[in-house]
Specification:
Strand order of the largest sheet: 1-2
Bound molecules: heme C
CATH architecture of the largest domain: Orthogonal Bundle
Domain Cytochrome c: 41-168, 193-307
Keywords: Heme, Iron, Metal-binding, Oxidoreductase, Periplasm, Peroxidase, Signal
Signal peptide: 1-21
Number of helices: 11
Helix content: 25-40%
Region (Disordered): 311-332
Number of domains: 2
Order of helices and strands: EEHHEEHHHHHHEHEHH
Strand content: 5-15%
Protein name: Cytochrome-c peroxidase
């Protein structure tokens, strides 16, 4: 069912006109490129907003609460916990390499990172903060007013500026240089025999039909439970919530497998606690194939080679509130 197009031409990267060329192996997954920072001041502002708990009603929840950059950009919970200890309906996907995905959210309801970033601030199961109040808070903090002016040339802060700065920061959250990337770039020693056997199995059994591209995912929406239905108690219905088309029920954005060793538990409902379980379920439900423990071990060994360099951040120091700053209301 999943015949792969084999491309015969090797991809050659020319380095700035020089005669030197590095050959990247011709594979369905490509190396992650390091981030190019075009506007460092905007990225720095976005980083502050990313760690800013005053964008939440409680004053204690920031983007980093559920997408912890010390933990692969996730909260490692089955489903997220937000304002008032409310449980969200789905598992928090990693934000690492999310700029490489065709759309944001499990059902792709946001087209890009900027469109996504406004949602969690006001969602009641997340930060529960009306946008008008979030803007009042930022506008009351002289340090932010100066920084927004420096980046956007305006003193009046609006949501477009906030989400655009957050998205600029998120675009830097890529994880190049995994061992698998080194292998893709031609280093034969970067993977051991078991890991390589795992990759071969991953490729030959058809996982790459869906998990492909630099992020090993994020390139399409696919049915969860293609060969055998997936049983879940989660209310999430997937892509049909966006398109209204019944055939899109249980179609989810194929998640990235980059850093998947760190982003447990797995699936939109967080029901698979371990990578072994996730691989076993994928084999049976998506490909109609029951792997032996040995085969699962090999695929898992391969998946763990896709953990790349995690973003190295200096903790931002957030500007102090002024006397006019609206106070947080943790119990609202
Ligand atoms: C309470 C936990 C929580 C907080 C706080 C939170 N998120 Fe999320 N985030 C989630 C969950 C859960 C999802 C998946 C929701 C869905 O797909 O329906 C998500 C999805 C995302 C995605 C899409 C990733 C993908 O692969 O589809 C991005 C990007 C993101 N959040 C960024 C942010 C930003 C920026 C903030 C802060 C403004 C933030 N999040 C705050 C829990 C949280
Ligand atoms: C037909 C498309 C398709 C195929 C083939 C496929 N996957 Fe998936 N994969 C998905 C989708 C869609 C999800 C998300 C499902 C969900 O959350 O309900 C997923 C999720 C995963 C996850 C969990 C990631 C996370 O962060 O939650 C892992 C691990 C995974 N796949 C590995 C594999 C492996 C290994 C194979 C081959 C045995 C494979 N997949 C084959 C579409 C596919």
């Amino acid at each position: 069912m999943f015949k792969l197009k084999t491309m015969s031409v090797a991809v050659a990267m020319m380095v700035a006109g020089s005669a030197w060329a590095a050959t990247v192996r011709d594979e369905p997954i490509q190396p992650i490129q390091p981030a190019k920072v075009e506007n460092p001041a905007k990225v720095e502002l976005g980083k502050k907003l990313w760690f800013e708990p005053r964008l939440s009603m409680s004053g204690i929840i920031s983007c980093n609460t559920c997408h912890n950059l010390s933990r692969g950009g996730t909260d490692n919970l089955k489903t997220s916990i937000g304002h008032g200890w409310k449980a969200g309906p789905v598992n928090s996907p990693t934000v690492l390499n999310s700029s490489l995905a065709i759309a944001q959210f499990w059902d792709g309801r946001a087209a890009n990172l900027q469109e996504q970033a406004g949602g969690p601030i006001q969602a009641d199961v997340e930060m529960n903060m009306p946008h008008t109040l979030a803007l009042d808070v930022l506008q009351s903090i002289p340090g932010y007013v100066a920084e927004f002016k420096g980046v956007f040339g305006k003193e009046q802060i609006d949501m477009d500026m906030v989400t655009s700065a957050i998205a600029a920061f998120e675009e830097t959250l890529v994880t190049p240089n995994s061992r698998f990337d080194k292998w893709l770039k031609g280093d034969d020693k970067a993977l051991d025999a078991k890991e390589l056997a795992g990759y071969t199995l991953f490729k030959e059994s058809g996982c790459v039909a869906c998990h492909n591209g630099p992020a090993a995912g994020g390139t399409s929406f696919q049915r969860m439970g293609l060969v055998e239905p997936y049983q879940s108690t989660s209310p999430a219905e997937g892509r049909s919530a966006v398109t209204g088309v019944d055939a899109d029920r249980f179609n989810f954005k194929v998640p990235t497998l980059r850093n998947v060793e760190m982003t447990y538990p797995y699936f939109h409902d967080g029901e698979a606690a371990t990578l072994e379980q996730a691989v076993d379920i994928m084999g049976r439900l998506q490909l109609g194939r029951t792997y032996s423990d040995d085969e699962i071990g090999k695929i898992v060994a391969f998946l763990k080679t896709m953990t790349g360099d995690q973003p190295q951040l200096t903790m931002p120091i957030l500007p102090p509130s002024s006397n006019a700053t609206p106070r947080p209301d943790p119990f609202k």
